[in-house]
Amino acid sequence: MRYSTVQDVLETFKSAVYEKDVARYLSIYAGDIHMFDCWGDWECVGLSQWEEIVKDWFGGLQEEGVTLKTEFDDVVVQENSNLAFVHCNVTFAAYNESDEKLRHMTNRFTFGLRKDAESWSIVHQHSSLPISMETGKGIFNLK
C-alpha cells in the first residue's frame, strides 16, 4: 500500500486496529522498524518480530470479543520531503459487541516516518506512560 501523507498512515493505524487487520496494520511500518514499547519485551526490531506481537495483540482482542477504537489527540507533525516526526497521545478504548465501553487507556506516542518511493512508513515508534512517583507504576489515564 502507498501512503501519500503522514495523516494517511495515522488513519490506517486507527482503522486497521479497529478491524484487527494484521496485514493492513503492518503495511504502515518499514521493514527495518525499531520500536520502544511500554509493554512486554521493551524493544522490537524488524517487521517480523513486530508481526508476531501484533498477531498476539489482535488475537487476544478477537478471543475477548472486543473492538478497539483508537483516537489521536494533541497531534504534532513536523515533516520535510523525506522524514517526518509525530508526537501525540493515543487512546485505546475497548468496546463489547453491544458497543458498551469496557475500558480505555492513553499512551504517549512518538513516530518517526520515512518517505520511500513516494510513500510514508513508520521507521521508529516509541510509546510511553508517565510513572507515579508514589507507586512506581504507569499512569494509564492521565489525559
Automatic annotation (TrEMBL):
Pfam family, one: SnoaL_3
Domain of life from the UniProt record: Bacteria
Species this chain originates from: Tumebacillus amylolyticus
Domain SnoaL-like: 6-131
InterPro entries the UniProt entry points to: NTF2-like_dom_sf, SnoaL-like
Protein name in the entry: Nuclear transport factor 2 family protein
